[in-house]
Design a protein that fits this description.
single chain; Protocatechuate 4,5-dioxygenase, Chain B; eight-stranded mixed sheet; two-stranded antiparallel ribbon; 10 helices; globular
């Protein structure tokens, strides 16, 4: 049977992708950030999964404000990098895993979570930047990826509790798949940041690191943090962190092993958080 072997959590700041694509990763500003992901790249080479289930949010590329699904699972065979206004990123096409994706969709919908099934879409920096951070600049991604898009752009957005319980349903679905696949579930976005208004540039180191502590040790309690705490403490875009709860919910109930933890300020105007947890 398939199993979730680990979960990966990381910010997906678009400027990180631009720094890589323009050859600026060694610049004084960016080098400390990319250095924090060197252990992660080595870890992934030693722990390459058969499939990555990647939770992210679309930034008005695959979905416009006309139609925004709360949860959408990609069931296609491949996904091309999106043109976000300055051309697609020069990164590999993402290969999907339609069979596992369709199985997860069926199982999770039967568990009473409404998913939108997507058979064709492009993927933006929310998905490609985490892959670049973990894999580097490669000619092909190391394994198939199932994109799972969450609406954290247009209110109302799903609660932390809803996301955590959805993660549990996804973990259950993966465990029911009748092929011996090693699956990693990645949660992306955040950490604290606000892109507009009087609080633009807000970064809350203390709250961010407490969030990481609680994500490791008490995710079930963390799931009850209300939306307004995210907005007040982590900025309007800090709500992206509910997506990390999906990845955490997919893990087993046993305490995880922390393989790597990293926090860096700033990357553009965002606090970057990163965590790798292995199932015990």
């Amino acid at each position: 049977m398939a199993k979730v072997t680990a979960s990966v959590y990381t910010s997906h700041v678009p400027a990180i992708g631009a720094a890589l694509d323009l050859g600026k990763s060694g610049d004084a500003y960016w080098q400390p950030l990319f250095a924090g992901y060197e252990p992660s790249k080595a870890w992934l080479k030693d722990n390459t999964p058969d499939v990555i289930f990647l939770v992210y949010n679309d930034h008005a590329t695959a979905f416009s404000l006309d139609i925004i699904p709360t949860f959408a699972i990609g069931c296609a065979a491949e996904y091309r990098p999106a043109d976000e206004g300055w051309g697609p990123r020069p990164v590999p096409v993402v290969k999907g895993h339609p069979e596992l994706a369709a199985h997860i969709a069926h199982s999770v919908i039967q568990d009473d979570f409404d998913l939108t099934v997507i058979n064709k879409m492009d993927v933006d920096h929310g998905l490609t930047v985490p892959l670049s951070l973990m894999c580097g600049q490669v000619s092909a991604w190391p394994c198939p990826v199932i994109p799972f898009a969450v609406n954290v752009v247009q209110y109302p957005v799903p609660s932390g509790r809803r996301c955590f319980n959805l993660g549990r349903a996804i973990g259950k679905a993966i465990a029911l798949y009748d092929q011996p696949l090693k699956v990693q579930v990645w949660g992306t976005g955040g950490m604290s940041h606000q892109l507009q208004g009087p609080r633009a540039g807000l970064i809350n180191r203390e709250w961010d690191n407490k969030f990481l502590d609680r994500l490791i040790a008490e995710p079930d309690k963390l799931a009850d943090v209300p939306h307004m705490e995210y907005v007040h403490e982590a900025g309007s875009e800090g709500i992206e962190l509910v997506m990390w709860l999906i990845a955490r919910g997919a893990m087993s109930n046993n305490p995880p092993r922390v393989a790597h933890r990293f926090y860096h300020v700033p990357a553009s105007n965002t606090a970057v958080g990163h965590l790798i947890l292995e199932n015990s």
